[in-house]
């Protein structure tokens, strides 16, 4: 999809279902029934479901409105405080460049030349005169006032709309506000689906599915994920001296969405329908020229507003990060998942809280992997800088302790502060001497959580090129701040000179990859997770997909997204092609489990494997994942399990298959309790745990406590199950793409196309019953900024070579 010729090979994808009746926006209306509120025939289900989701994730009406209120106050504070600092402070007096003489009769002679804070603040009359005489200040204040009033009106509208959502939760979903935090989104979603049967919120379908709700909430997000997956958006730049640089900021992303989805002249005529003219191929060149003009106008508007946006960005960054940097100078060396990384690693149909939780679990493994790289020369310099700075700081502190009058010496406090910052920064480049680093295993552990990894990373985890590519997904917070500050300057040029050149490709993309679904509207066809239309033969879809190379999702995103959605929503009925894929995958798991290690052996190796990966979490799912990932290394090195038996060589795929098959076997006795189409039969009720081995623990709890902790177990072990699938599917993809690498296997895999003939393949039935699961673990909510600011293990080292001379390497 990198050029025009590639797009010429696209074929229009047929609609997934029959077309929706025209005029949906006129048919879906809110019809109240007297004093009893009724939520049927909702006009805009996209906004409605999105608000329901945000209401749940932001902890209810009170928290949301309090946040909105303080955002208004915060903006007002930044504007007024900045105006005060510019116009109402005498800096010559404050810095003692101009003497002050207090001649009052009651003044102590020693205090007559002492500067006080009121001396440095001008009178209100003089301050007003300064503001009135500065036309630029008046213009900026008028602009800020207009924006603040706009925000105030928006907040008022949000109060009205979210009050209706509050009533919907209480009256329709039967969820009180004091109990909202105890309900998971899956429980809220189940009640929405049940309510559709009673009150027709959507009139085009009698019943809603989980996928319908996800499509409504993530309609535009799925398009963004697909465009990043197909390298359509110009976010990778070739910069002199820096090489390939990924640049995607909040401002640039906002402009992309404004141009494509909901701004003036966008491709969508409303929230749920692509404009009909973009569905026809006859006028594609004319539409591309029209889109190019819109992008040009948007770029010029950004260029015109650049000074004002830049000033705001600088002020906001100063007020937000200065105190944090002073208190914790090392926070700039902390890392965060970049905006590009969040789109690149996101599954189709993955809600925000699911993505944040998954990336949150992968934060520490990724940090440890990035910490395995450092420059030996930089380490030597950092040690000596820390020594010299620490020596000077120690002397100054000793003098201050001896006589506090030392603090009155000019710039002494500044020197102490600067030296402390220098020492903190220098120590962040000094690696831990006692930690054992295994880059390949750490990168495999990262893969278990982020689920996506380019093929060329395999076997190259210790190379600086791989580390640089990981850094594009997992950037320094200092880089994030710098990019956001540069965004007002860079964004107009990306729009004018890069995005405009993609106009025809964008038009073709939306025409070829948009389908209309009854009761949902126009959605990205990739979001259907249809193996036949978008599957990749090297990702276990061989013989099941009809997609050309241009219609295939990259990096197995269709297959992995399907498995993720299936695990997260066990009640969802997948289409026929998806069900066939899942069934074939299940059969292959059972076959490969026959040649894999026993689950008891993997559990017995958990402490050693956890230590090998420098993982201190110690939770059940993490230990099991560590065992699966490290087992091939232990067997290859000749290490034995606790039973001292001979352990034949095996791969991570066979180890993952063994665990998945054993967990599945442990649930076969309960199949009559509900249907499951995933590899692990999951319970239909949230009150039932995913694993029978935890049932005795759950039964011992009270009803309320049982539901909360059971939900925690569901989330924790569902994430572990998906991690095992990611490992297993990546291993099979590597075997399919590079069959020469599988020569060390002691049992050849069975091709997917031959599995239907092997009806007798069964996993060992005795494995699942002997699994000993840990005590339930409470799951904490993963907040993007809080998680990144409060991580304990934040010492991230930079450089281009693996550690040498410090610590140990595998």
TrEMBL record:
Keywords: Autophagy, Lipid transport, Membrane, Transmembrane, Transmembrane helix, Transport. It is found in: Preautophagosomal structure membrane. It holds the Pfam family ATG9. InterPro entries: Autophagy-rel_prot_9. Residues 783-795 have a biased composition (Acidic residues). GO terms for biological process: autophagy of mitochondrion; lipid transport; piecemeal microautophagy of the nucleus; protein localization to phagophore assembly site; reticulophagy. Its main location: membrane. GO terms for cellular component: autophagosome; phagophore assembly site membrane. The keyword Transport applies. It is a multi-pass membrane protein. The chain crosses the membrane at residues 135-153, 294-319, 380-402, 409-430. PANTHER family: APG9 AUTOPHAGY 9, AUTOPHAGY-RELATED PROTEIN 9B. Belongs to the ATG9 family. Phospholipid scramblase involved in autophagy. Cycles between the preautophagosomal structure/phagophore assembly site (PAS) and the cytoplasmic vesicle pool and supplies membrane for the growing autophagosome. Lipid scramblase activity plays a key role in preautophagosomal structure/phagophore assembly by distributing the phospholipids that arrive through ATG2 from the cytoplasmic to the luminal leaflet of the bilayer, thereby driving autophagosomal membrane expansion. This is Autophagy-related protein 9. It comes from Amphiprion percula (Orange clownfish).
